[in-house]
Specification:
The complex is a heterotetramer of chains A (about 375), B (about 260), C (about 290) and D (about 325).
Chain A (H helix, E strand, L loop, with lengths): L1 H19 L6 E7 L6 H20 L8 E7 L4 H13 L4 E6 L1 H14 L3 E5 L13 E3 L4 H15 L5 E6 L2 H17 L5 E5 L7 H10 L3 E5 L4 H11 L5 E4 L7 H5 L8 E4 L7 H14 L8 H22 L3 H10 L1 E2 L8 E3 L5 E2 L3 E6 L2 E4 L4
Helix pairs in contact in A: 2-11, 3-4, 5-6, 11-12
Chain B lengths: L1 E12 L2 E12 L3 E5 L6 H8 L7 E6 L2 E2 L5 H7 L1 E3 L12 H9 L7 H6 L3 H19 L15 H13 L5 E5 L7 H16 L3 E5 L3 H7 L2 E6 L2 E7 H4 L3 H8 L5 H5 L2
Parallel strand pairs in B: 3-8, 3-9, 6-7, 7-8
Antiparallel strand pairs in B: 1-2, 1-4, 4-5, 9-10
Chain D lengths: L7 H17 L2 H27 L6 H18 L8 H16 L7 H21 L1 H4 L12 E2 L2 E2 L3 H24 L1 H11 L1 H6 L4 H27 L9 H13 L5 H17 L7 H15 L5 H7 L9
Classes of the chains: A alpha/beta (about 375), B alpha/beta (about 260), C mainly alpha (about 290), D mainly alpha (about 325).
Amino acid sequence: MKMRKLIGAITVAGSVAMAVSAQAQDIKLGVVAGMSGPGTSYGIGIRQGAEMAVREINAAGGIKGRKISLVVVDDASNPAQSVTAMQRLVNDQVDLVVGGWGSSQVLANMEVAERAGLPYIVVGATNPKITTEKNKWTFRVIFTDSVQAEQIADAAVRRLGMKRIAVIHDANDYGVGNRDIFVASLKKIGLDPVAVVPYQSADKDFTAQLSRIREANPDGLAIFGTIPAAPAIMNQARDLGIKARFIGTGGLANENLMTLAPKASEGTVLTTYFHEDVDPQARAWADRYVKEFSGGSQPPRPVLAAWEYRAVKFIAVPCIESSGTDKEKLRQCIGRWKGTLFSVPGDAYFDKTGQLVQQSVLVEVGKGAFQAFKGK
Amino acid sequence: MTLLAASKVSLSFAGVRALVNIDLQIEEGELLGIIGPNGSGKSTLFNVLSGIYRVDQGTIVFRGERIERFGIAQIVRRGIARTFQNKRLFGTMSVLENVEVAAMKGVQGSALGDVFGLNSSLQARKKAGAIAERCLVLTGLADSTGLLARDLPYGAQNRLEIARALALEPTLLLLDEPAAGLNPSERAELQELIRRVHAEGLTIALVEHDVRMVTGLCARAIVLDHGEKIADGASAMVVRNPRVQAAYFGEVESEEEAHAA
Amino acid sequence: MFDQLFIGGLATGCVYAVVGLGFTLVYRTLRMVNFAQGHVFMAGAFLGLVIAERVHLPALPLLFVVGAVAFALGMVLERLVFRRLYHNHEVFIVGSIGLGIVLMNGVRVFFPEPVPFPKVFGSEVVQIGAARFQEGYLWVVLSTLVLVVLLHAMFTYTRTGRALRAVAADAEIAATVGVDVKRAIALTFGLSFAVAAIAGVLIGPLYFVSFDMGDMVGLKAFSAAVFGGINSIPGTILGGLVIGVLENLAGGYISSAYKDLVAFVILLVMLIWRPTGLLGRETPVKV
Amino acid sequence: MAALHQRWWFWAATLAALLALPALAPQYVVHIANFILIYTLPVVGLGFLTGFTGRVSLAQGALFGVGAYTTALLTTKLGWAPVATLVPSVLMTIVLAVSLGGAAVRLAGLYFVMATIGIQQIVWLVLMNWIELTNGPQGVRSIPAVGLGEYSLETPQQFYFLALVAAGISYFLAKRVIGSRLGLFLRALSDDQLAASSVAVEVGRAKVTALALSAAWAGAGGFLYAHYVRFIHPDMFGLEPSVLFLVMSMFGGYRSIEGMIVATALLESATEYLRPFGEFRMIAYGMILLLGMMFFPMGILTLVRRRAGAPAAGKD
């Protein structure tokens, strides 16, 4: 009897979840991301970007008269729960998914989307393995680790003139992925890193790693990690007397970098996913976004919100408009997409793996903010 | 024939001498009484014989084998079973199960074999059940097999301790103050039970505070005081020994001490 | 490099030691492990942050105030929460893990992001030998020293301290000689909260404070306590220092990938080799 | 009521409901049901330790992971058929559990908990950092689905029957373990270890056997998990699942396999009920653990049983 009650309870819960989102005419846009757990601030940014885009489209009359309804599922920034979250979107019969934060989560949940034949535009994960020719339902708009690490390696040597580069990286997939490509790119240019040391995401004290780096006496230190480790590394490196200039990739592209390492982060050069000063549209959007979402429990985080917004508004919506909600047609339409996006110089298009090919943005930390990089 | 012989057994805890050069013989088939005031080392002696404590010095020979370095389970397997004064029953298990655990000693087979073998599990439980049943009948607990051990009345818990020890089918049974806390009628029943078990040919050593019970049951008795053996002989004679009288009746017995470990 | 690693490790080790003391105090009294301890350390850091941002207190009064508030909080939680978990150690473990989750995620609601802590202990960089470090490291080491001396004095010279020791040795006997055991237990929790919270404030300015900062520190401090002897105060201090220094040396000379492994391998080996730890003593089993 | 679970129609109805579930319930519910069925394995396995030896383990999540990684690596790197890796996964988990915990399980209860925390962290750190073997933080992707001949269990509905059969076998084997002499020995030694050894129970051996069995169940659970989720990552096997499994095995009530299974179902589906809480979800989860332990230390389900008039078995 206990068991039967339980099954009853589960079934009821399931059908309630169904009923809530069951309005047949609406186009259902699924969003999955970590809105609790370590990715909270990014996940909320993604949700806000989606909300903003959907609100604008619905206010303008929707897509051929059909409104978009959002189905947002929190995966708690946890790979196991991410699978359940995506399963839930499949079950709710969303027409496509735009979102995803964290490579581990996306690597886990994309398997569900692939099996279900659901178009999935990934916004917040950079592991190269997410877009391969095998994964035909998965697309990605932000650049991979490989693009970013390659660009920053090139910039470090050619534009910043670094000769002795040390690497400190998170031992997670993001850090390891960046490290591998960065080191390989340096080798191509003809340089070997003077030290490569990993750390754990939860580490607080980096003196052990940094002492090793100091021994190597670098003039550039590449940090492949995220907040809060990256600013802690910067602070402690300066305390230890390491004078090397910091470089990095998208993991550092977070305003908290300057809050947490106000002095140490000055001069850091990094690739980023979005910068509001690239063009006037980007600036206008960013101002609107910040205005709309400041005062919430989380500070507005434009980087991933911008990608979510652009992916929904400029890629997903036009495709639904032209191809309808048939999943196969939708997939093909996204694959063929080519166009311009604000904050991205030039044209962007998807390659055959589903990766959006585009020019990235190089920024430098100056006066407590990200500035467009003006070096050579 | 001597079943168990301890010689020059000594043990001390953090400098306190609990047993001092104890010599002890238990003859096959006898019912030996061990008496002495509280803290005299009676329970400690049992703990040494059953392997709970390791001796500092001395040897213990049981049926021709040195056992003083053996662990608890090893000693039980050699045939020495015991009861505990402060009832150490398996409280959350039924009366039958309490005895079954012990009865498993005599049943062939291994734990994993029970799980994956087809019928051996049932047979093992059946065999153990039969042994347990017999011991429960003998101790008058046949009617309460389904009760949880901790729900048994105090007197019955005493008998369950004995039933459990008997299910091990021992050669030597050590009874540690089985009468403690019993009322006179329960005491009489217990005495009857011990006599019956002894009559079946089992060798028994009985630690008892109640001198009358020892003189009533045991032909021979030894007396311990401050960890030393101060008398050994016919129980009726031993209790009249002046040293025993002094050691034993010279102090006041308090209820609290009687229950202390 | 050795100097740098050693001094860095010593400071981290002090934190493990002080947080570990919280485990030890509770364990000695109740034979229970309070897995919320690491999160109390975290909550202490945030308490310090909130106070320091509103009132500009110098370092010493700040430590004192945080310690006092945490002490009171510990006593209150003992009465409302812990007291209902003394059933057995399994229940206590899961209950305290639950409390830790509540603490951590409660703080997260208010502070979802890592926050810099005001540099209450100064921000100068000091050089000793080849090692360079913030002034705050000195504070950590000195405060640990002072805390240990104070605790020792309290346990040795005050009536309350002696009562706590008596309860730790044997609560039943302590009760029969007139010690108020319930009060002693409440005081124990108060003390364990106070030391952890102070450790939180000490470490705050060196790194950032974030809601999850207590996770790993809690586990390492626990390993430190077990390593040194979870029923021994000097043992726990020693354990903390040894683990802090060893893991830093391992991180520097061997591989930082396995830096975190040091504490846990030490924990496991110690438990098998000598479960009572380096300086702990076995309590004899009664039969 | 007390005899409810002994009546044939109860079982028939339960079985019918379980068999009909994938046809009647939405896919998402089947998906949750699959997780519940998979998790019953490590939870019931842990029950051998917690319920029957009084030993709390916080390493069950890690052992679950060892099973999952063994099959994942054998199938993806060496190309083994999934079915062929079940036995190696279980064996690997047992070997690891016994070699790391065999000595510790003989320690007094609380020391064992401490050791399992060490084991948990060590396994997790190795999964994370031994990149050549485990892919480290990249996790293992594209784990094949279990195939039965031509038929491959890809969808939640297809997998459901495998999970159901596995959970069923686990349940009946567990009942057998507990009914066997090992079960008797374990209960005896958890009540009183000294008394158990004085009735000839080889206490150390019984505990190691219990540890090995609990690892076997965890390993089998990990096997299922890997072939269902088909992507595994070290973070799936950290302290968090270990705590969850422990709580599931304790909330079910002392020594009741059925209770553990029901608790697994309740707590796993609770993760879904709590989803709307958003940022407050983890607070709610912590409160469940805390209040559950404060007010129902013998397991939430003892409440049901007590009301039903059956004696609630508990430890004083």
